[in-house]
Amino acid sequence: MRTQVLPVTEESIALAARLLNQGELVALPTETVYGIAADARNGAAVRKIFEAKGRPQDNPLIVHIYGMEMLHGIVTQVPVRARKLAEAFWPGPLTMVMPRGPEVSDVTCAGLDTVGVRMPSHPVVQAVIQASGVAFAAPSANLSGKPSPTNAQDTLADMDGRLPLILDGGESNVGVESTVLSVVGEHPMLLRPGYITKEQMEAVLGEEVLVSPAILEKLKEGEIARSPGMKYKHYAPKAQVTIVQGSFDAYRRYVQAHAGEGVWALCFDGEGARLPVPSIEYGKNHDGVTQAHHLFTALRDLDRNGAQIVYARCPEQDGVSMAVYNRLIRAAAFRVVTA
Ligand code: AMP
Ligand code: MG
């Protein structure tokens, strides 16, 4: 299959809409990362997403809508908490897990009786949903296990020959995938941290948001993942990544002691020049927003430079940094050391 990369125009949006209605795949920019879209109602179309990505069949997809009316048929009920959070954060990078409606294919939800739904703020996604009338399932546009792409070039690197169209809408602003919150249980539960933070949602809900244990630690043997995606190694470059906790000075000494052929540093802005090995910088220290924006490109840059072993500076664990830490520990296959 030939993969076309087209700039965003009225014609390319119309083509994307046509492809979606024909049960084909379209890769497109969202405010979080680039996604691969298919009609969420059409099981055969959604199956193509799993094939293109090599994604495990038991990992459900998020359904993207535009306008609250589109929830009809997608969910059976909009819990009160979901209404409040939608008012505060939609359109935006928040996914809510709700009771699944009759129109969503089994394939989209990996057979679960719940569905993750989000209303994106990116104008290109909104235009494609409006032009097609299709609520689409869309995971990140990477090969399963690799870092998510935040631009059309990285999307093409993974998806060339696997789908007919990539819409090039420039760099994704947020840089990490949406926050995923379950609102079906007794208490709201964070399943994946993102740009919309636990603290922000608690302020709107006026109650505590529980944090699923799998977010910041490895699941124990036999433990059940509430969000199936959490159990997989993910976001990983080819290099072996280790997170190094501690001050910059402790980190620098650690890297010094482990320097050698193929060893790279993944550090914060302005630190690279003071390190004894080559480095990629991924945002400002103490600033989860800039780290989220740069993380996935930085991981791909390490591969492009042939890095074999990577020592990464450790992000904080609250606010948007929780999302960065969550992605980085998976990229590091949970290898964390204290310097
Ligand atoms: P991705 O499509 O790569 O952005 O990943 C979507 C994430 O949302 C995965 O971690 C899924 O496990 C999670 N997710 C999607 N739908 C559900 C659901 N119905 N229940 C729990 N988690 C979900
Ligand atoms: Mg993904």
Account of the 3D structure:
- This protein has 339 residues and is an alpha/beta fold.
- The protein folds into two domains: 212 residues, DHBP synthase (Alpha-Beta Complex), CATH 3.90.870.10; 99 residues, Rossmann fold.
- It contains nine helices and 16 strands.
- The strands form two sheets. Strands 1-8-2-3-7-4-6-5-9-10-11 form an eleven-stranded mixed sheet, with helices on both faces.
- Helix 1 packs across helix 4 and helix 8 packs parallel to helix 9.
- The longest helix is centred in the last third of the chain and has 17 residues.
- The chain is globular.
- Adenosine monophosphate binds next to strand 6 and strand 10.
- The site of magnesium ion has 4 residues, from loops.
Q: Compute the number of helices.
A: 9
Give the termini distance in whole angstroms.
Answer: 49 Å
Structural class label: alpha/beta
Task: Flag low-confidence runs.
Answer: none
Which CATH first-tier class of the largest domain would you pick? Answer: Alpha Beta
